[in-house]
Amino acid sequence: MTDWVKKAEDQEVAKLVDQLQIQSDENTFATRNNSCIYDVPATKNNEESEPDVADPAETSLLIKILGKGLVNTKLSLDIQQKNPNSPLHSVKTFEALHLKEELLKGIYAMGFNTPSKIQETALPTLLADPPQNMIAQSQSGTGKTAAFVLAMLSRVNVKLNHPQVLCLSPTYELAIQTGEVAARMGQFCPEIKLRFAVRGEEVERNQKITEHILIGTPGKMLDWGYKFRLFDMKKISVFVLDEADVMIATQGHHDQCLRIHKLLNQQCQMLFFSATYDREVMDFAKLIVTEPTIIRLNREQESLDNIKQYYVKCKNEEGKYNAIQNIYGCISIGQAIIFCHTRRTAGWLASKMTSDGHSVAVLSGDLTVEQRLAVLDRFRSGLQKVLITTNVLSRGIDIEQVTIVVNFDLPVDIRGNADCETYLHRIGRTGRFGKSGIAINLVSGDKCMAVCKAIEKHFKKDIHILNTDSADDIEKIGN
Ligand SMILES: Nc1ncnc2c1ncn2[C@@H]1O[C@H](COP(=O)(O)OP(=O)(O)OP(=O)(O)O)[C@@H](O)[C@H]1O
Question: What values do phi and psi take at 132, rounded to 5?
């Protein structure tokens, strides 16, 4: 494993992302616009004027890199047992799992003293004999990766020199992240060999792969296992689908994962892990995973209880801008996020505010993951007080210190109706942990007003009118 550890360490993600430009698929090179967001080009392409949305794989990577350790949660677990022969129990210590000593040493060397909530329940099932299938869901940072990596390492029979464990990730960078965890956890097990099955990794056509664990992206895995037959898919005993929601919901990945799944042995242990599962994705997962134990960590309920909500009537975009000018002094006392619908609006607003001498950060979909990290780091460290963004700042990315959220554009679905879930998610960023927060909605036109009213009705919480031309009203926001 030593070479492998070194390799993983050498491939520190920050540097990687820097060199590589994130790709949504190993075979597609996304062309990125690295030019400064403030330079809104004269000829604007469609992407800029369409609603800006987050790429789930990029978001996962961002969340992983931003994550600073285990998220402690008091949320309850929801467990469904499809196989009546697999009694469920939980462990309070890693010793209780009866792991190989070297593996336990690796866990402690990583600074893990006790299992996290999801690990307590998942690990006994993951390590059980006979092997049990699992579909697990819990929010980012709760210890899923560490759990399945431990299962992967503990299942390897080092006497057999062929791949026994496959772990699929949606992107190169996410695969490397998982590999790094495996390398660290297995650092005292030099006999366990791992290999990345990602672009740039090549194997001679006439050679067989002898490593025990393959971590990679679906395309490369299919090439190696099916097209070039560099290993025997039927000999795989553990199959892990990480970021299962992204994998299943992304067309290309979906097909490739299904093909891999079909080539596997019936007895292969199937483990699906994800931070979220849409209903369809969960239904699909249940369809292809036989008798799974399903573990879900109940979602933290975002609430509007601690949030004062306002709306400001504006004539047009300029009117909205004036409203922001008027409240700038107030919003920049703490930290504020301004949400726009499109990259174009975000860019326009940022350039206007910048030219008026305000210091603002911008985060939109045309930035690389590395650029987004830099923007978030600056904002989180308080260097910039105002962050202008789109829906690309999607759920899961936590910025605790936000006190005001401004909806420059109210969130709407493709039919133009109020998107209440996104509204809750956006403004739920403020007013957390019992602190009070403020949400200001800039409303122009009847359609927009109707959206605002629909949101008010949906949550049964008043959204009060705010006149940003009135000093008294503005003072009201801060109190
Ligand atoms: N039992 C533990 N004790 C202490 N730290 C832990 C434990 N398990 C995991 N961690 C640490 O917590 C962080 C989050 O863990 P992990 O990456 O496994 O979570 P995750 O649920 O897979 O998150 P994501 O969905 O972002 O991949 C990591 O820094 C990891 O090293």
Answer: -110, 145
- Protein residue with its CA nearest to atom 16 in ligand 1: 143
Question: Which residue's alpha carbon is nearest to atom 4 within ligand 1?
Answer: 112
In 3D, which of 17, 66, 45 has the Cα closest to residue 366?
Answer: 45
What's the gap in Å between 214 CA and the centre of ligand 1? Answer: 21
Determine the atom of ligand 1 nearest the C-alpha atom of 149.
18
Chain Cα centroid distance, residue 263: 29
Q: What is d(CA 414, CA 421) in angstroms, rounded to the nearest whole number?
A: 14
Hey, what are 348's tokens? 């326009």
Q: Hey, whose CA ends up nearest to atom 3 of ligand 1? A: 112
Whether residue 177 has its Cβ less than 6 Å from ligand 1: no
User: Closest Cα to atom 15, ligand 1: which residue?
Assistant: 143
**Exposed, middle or buried, 31 (CB in 10 Å: 0-12/13-18/19+)?**
exposed
Tell how far the Cα of 271 is from the centroid of ligand 1, in angstroms: 17
69 lines ligand 1 (CB under 6 A): yes
- Rounded to the nearest whole angstrom, what is the distance from the C-alpha of residue 119 to the centroid of ligand 1? 10
ipTM of the complex: 0.98
34 CB burial (10 A radius; 0-12, 13-18, 19+): exposed
- Can you give the pTM of this predicted structure? 0.76
Nearest CA to ligand 1 atom 6: 70
**Ligand 1 atom nearest residue 64's Cα:** 26
Do 24 and 247 form a contact (C-beta atoms < 8 A)?
Answer: no
Q: Which residue has the higher pLDDT, 330 or 33?
A: 330
Strand pairing of 437-444 and 464-465? unpaired
**Cβ neighbours of residue 434 closer than 8 Å, sequence gap 6 or more:** 306
Residues 6+ apart with CB under 8 A from 331: 324, 385, 386, 404, 406, 440
Rounded to whole angstroms, the Cα distance separating 475 from 479 reads 7
Which residue lies with its CA nearest to atom 8 of ligand 1? 143
Identity of residue 178? T
* pLDDT at 10 exceeding the cut of 60: no
Q: How many CB atoms lie within 10 A of CB 235?
A: 13
What are the distances in angstroms from CA 474 to CA 243, 272, 436, 439, 458?
Answer: 44, 50, 17, 13, 26
Centre a 10 Å sphere on the Cβ of residue 424 and count the other Cβ atoms it contains: 19
**Is 124's C-beta closer than 6 angstroms to any atom of ligand 1?**
no
pLDDT per position as a tens digit, 387-422: 999 988 866 666 777 888 999 999 998 899 999 988
Q: What is the pLDDT of residues 231-272, one digit of tens each?
A: 999 999 999 999 898 888 887 888 899 899 999 999 999 999
Measured from the CA of 146, which atom of ligand 1 is nearest? 18
Pairwise CA distance, residues 357 & 430, whole Å: 25
